[in-house]
Amino acid sequence: MTWVEAIVLGIVQGLTEFLPVSSSGHLRITSAIFFDRDAGASFTAVTQLGTEAAVLIYFAKDIWRITRTWLVGLRDRSVRSSLDYRMGWYVIVGSIPIGLFGFLFKDQIRTAGRNLWVVSTTLIVFAFVLAFAEYWGRQTRTLVNFRMRDGIVMGFAQAMALVPGVSRSGGTLTAGLLLNLTREAAARYSFLLAIPAVVMSGIFSVGDVFEPAAPGTSVPSLAQMVVATIIAFGIGYAAIAWLLRYVAHHTLYVFVLYRVALGTLVLALLLTGTISAT
C-alpha cells in the first residue's frame, strides 16, 4: 500500500462511517477506482477502530453512565426500571445478530460480499428502502419509549451491513424510522449499538491486515495502518457532531439520492469495463 492510498482511505473511512452511505462500500469503491485494487475487509475493520474511538470519546459520559447503571442493576433491583439500565441490555442483545452472522459468514463477507456488482446494487436497493422509511415513519417515539423489540430489530438491521453497500448506520436508521423512532433517537442508539461489534471486529482483524496480499489486494505497513486509523478518528469525531445536528432538522433524502447516484456510477463503470468487479 502506498502512503497516498492509506491517507485517502483513512479520510474516506472517517467521512462515511457514520453517514447512511456505507463506509465499507466507499472504501471498496475508492480502492477500485483510484488504486485499481482492494484494501481488503481487514483494513476496513481496523480503521473502524479509529471512528469507534471517536464514538467512545464523544459519548463518554453516556457510555459511563449506562455501564455503571447496568452493573449496579445486576445486583440492585431498584435501578432496573431506569432507561440507562435497560439501554445496557438493549445494546448487548442488539449486538448478538452481527456477531453471530459475522462469525458464520466471515469468509463470504471477505470475498463474494466485496464484489462491486453486489456493492453497487445494495447501495441502490437500500437507498429506496431508506427513502420508504423516511416517508412512512411517523417519528413519534424517542429513546424514552425504546423497548427490547426495537433493539433486536435494529440489531438485525445492523447485521445486514456486513455486506458492503448496505451501511450499518443506514440499516439501523432505516429500522429505527420504520419503528417510528425520531431520526435523532435512532442515530443515538445506532452509535451505541456499533461499539461492541466494531471494536471486536477491529481487534480480531488486526493480525489479518498484515498477511501477504492476495492478487488484487494491498497490504499496509504498521505505520500506514496507524496513520489511516488516526485520520479516521479525527474526521469521524467531527462527523458525529455534524450528523446528530443534521438529522434533528433534515430528512435523509439527500443520502438516498447520493446512494443511487454512486451506485449507478459504479454500475456504469462495471458495464463499460472501466473497473473490475473483483
Describe this structure in words.
The chain has helices at residues 3-16, 23-35, 41-58, 60-73, 83-94, 96-104, 106-110, 116-136, 148-160, 168-178, 183-209, 222-249, 253-271. It is built from 13 helices and no strands. Helix 3 (41-58) crosses helix 11 (183-209), helix 4 (60-73) packs across helix 5 (83-94) and helix 11 (183-209) packs antiparallel against helix 12. It has 278 residues and is mainly alpha-helical. The mean pLDDT is 92. It has one domain (41-211, 245-272).
Helix-strand category = mainly alpha
Supply the number of structural domains: 1
Total DSSP helices: 13
> What is the approximate shape?
globular
Walk me through the topology.
Layout lengths: L2 H14 L6 H13 L5 H18 L1 H14 L9 H12 L1 H9 L1 H5 L5 H21 L11 H13 L7 H11 L4 H27 L12 H28 L3 H19 L7
Helix pairs in contact: 1-2, 1-12, 3-11, 3-12, 4-5, 5-9, 5-11, 6-9, 8-10, 8-13, 9-10, 9-11, 10-11, 11-12
Organism: Micromonospora wenchangensis
Function: Catalyzes the dephosphorylation of undecaprenyl diphosphate (UPP). Confers resistance to bacitracin.
Membrane topology: Multi-pass membrane protein
Summarize the entry for a quick read.
It contains 13 helices and no strands. It has helices at residues 3-16, 23-35, 41-58, 60-73, 83-94, 96-104, 106-110, 116-136, 148-160, 168-178, 183-209, 222-249, 253-271. It is globular.
Keywords:
278 residues, mainly alpha, 0% strand, globular, transmembrane helix, UppP, cell membrane
